[in-house]
Amino acid sequence: MKITAGYSRLKKLTNLLGPFIGLILVISIFSLMPEVSGRFLRLANLTSVATQSVIVALSALGMTLIIISGGIDLSAASNLALSCVLVAYSINLGLSPLLAALIGLVAGGLIGLANGLLITRLRLVPFIVTLGMMGIARGIAKWVARNQKIDAPLTWLNDLMVRTPHPSWLLLSPGIWLMIFLSIIMAVVLKKTVFGRRVVAIGSNELTARLCGIRTDRIKIIVYTISGLFCGLAGVMEFSRLTVGDPTVAMGLELDIIAAVVIGGGSLSGGEGSISGTLIGVFIMAFLRNGCTMMGWPNYFQEIIIGAIIIIAVALDRLRHRQD
Amino acid sequence: MKKELRVIFFLACLIVFLALIGCRSDRSSKASKGTGGLKKTYQIAVIPKGTTHEYWKAVEAGAIQAAQELGVEIFWKGPQKEDDRSQQIQVLEDFISRQVDGIVLAPLDDRALVRPVDEARAEGIPVVIIDSNLQGENYLSFIATDNYKGGVMAARRLAEVMGGKGKIFLIRYLEGSASTTFREQGFLDTVTKEYPGLELLVKDQYAGTTTESAYQLTENLLSRYPQVEGIFAPNESSTFGALRALQEAGLAGKIKFVGFDSSAKLIQALKDKELDGLVLQDPVKMGYLGVKTLVDYLQGKPVEKRIDTGVTLATPENMNQPEIKSLLEPDISKYVR
Lengths: 324, 337
What we know:
The structure holds 2 protein chains of 2 kinds.
Chain A lengths: L4 H28 L4 H4 L2 H26 L7 H17 L4 H25 L4 H19 L5 E2 L22 H19 L1 H11 L1 H6 L4 H27 L1 E2 L7 H11 L11 H21 L3 H25 L1
Antiparallel strand pairs in A: 1-2
Helix pairs in contact in A: 1-12, 3-7, 3-8, 3-10, 3-11, 3-12, 4-5, 4-6, 4-10, 5-6, 5-10, 7-8, 8-10, 11-12, 11-13, 12-13
Chain B lengths: L1 H35 L6 E5 L6 H17 L2 E4 L8 H14 L3 E4 L8 H9 L4 E4 L10 E4 L2 H16 L3 E7 L5 H17 L3 E9 L4 H14 L5 E3 L3 H13 L7 E5 L3 H8 L5 E4 L2 H16 L7 E3 L3 E3 L7 H7 L9
Helix pairs in contact in B: 2-10, 3-4, 5-6, 7-8
């Protein structure tokens, strides 16, 4: 079982190729549809899809890390909603928008930290801990918001996610730039740093990793905290988009986030996954949604397609493992 | 080897995908052929708050009826998850990208949808708002029930059946829900101004979004104030929840009760005289006028800024009259499944 560097690079390439072909096909199919052909590839529509992807993409960056480490985070979407509500709440308290955004971010990080601590200290399965946290975070969000949405005055925070940014030399909204920037950072962290290597090692074989001297618990806590911070940031972006703090926002979005990672080649048994793959997964779903809506297709149709794609992606994942 | 397999899988899935598309577009082209002709058919997106509730089915029926009469094509598409503000914004943005000729929108939020509507306006796409209020001014027309009037009507009916005096509950629906707040306000104002004989035992209790929560609230209120003689509830779920509580306590039909909106169970209760009145909106008309107003505008006709679709009171006495019956149980099977 000798694997040369060249072969492993090839393998990584082919792992990405599947999802990438899927994305190209989705885009080309819609751009060939006569009803929307001229409009689907318009720059305005592409930036609109990119803006719509920011929230899922940011949360999926953290989720990729967790899934590679062999865990799962079901509380991601609730965490996001909590952050969204807290930002609106803080702005209404008269805090500066920057401080409000930081509060949202930190709240996300704290929920992540709590997940990590519970999983490592109590030796509980991530699925259970984060399932519980899903309810807790959602509950706190509704509590803070007193069961309704919070209106907050418009600030510069609400300009982060507009389709046409001002000043116009930005070309894309600040949210999209942030997504690109953080994706690059996360890809580098995962590929080039000792920390990234250790995350992969834990996901591949936790026992071996521990025997090799990796402090697995500490790494896991960091992983969940980082992921929580990303959810917090996604919550800030959600607030920016909605202009209100809505405790019921992103209901069920955790499944979209996980699906994006899985479609992009992440393995729920850990040790595999990549930032680029995840982003492709996010975009496949975003383009499908956008395309289906532009065509005026009913929702059930679009849900069936996305469901089928998830199963196919996981089937491919299994197939790949059998051959290895 | 692996590579090929993966490509094959994706191709297979996309072939299925294409086949499905084929089926769909076949059907829709057939549907639009009858009305199309040579001149350009307008494409209008109608975006409800959700797609599974009875109420929205009735709105859809009205929209389809207008589309058939006027020869326009409509896209009926709500947020994928009911009541998801973020997804409703996405749907709106996607239709702006599609550059439809106009959009009819029932906004889930009076604030969050303002900016996407501004964007539609900036792209030259007219928007008609139906059902619920939207802040700002960037829309053509607002077509909805006059909810305040509905509340007034309910108060007068309750006073009528109670002979103008007695102890009553006002069961509220949900904090921050604009339409029901107007109904409650209309009810409250009328009772305090016109009927000094009516005494409000409860006026600040919220039933919550589900039938279950309304049921529990009413149960608790009934045990705390057994002397109550009349109740008003401002929407379908709170009316049904309160009705269930009355039925369980054996008080249905004894305590006077006026509700809002209609459903099969509420119609039955009206028939059994467990309900003394139901204030009805006209969702079919709302959907119809939404599309009609937009087409009028596109054809250069003047449109009104505010259109009231009217409220009607159904009582056990008048419920069999054809015009009331059609509001209680709108015949929508002709247009939607």
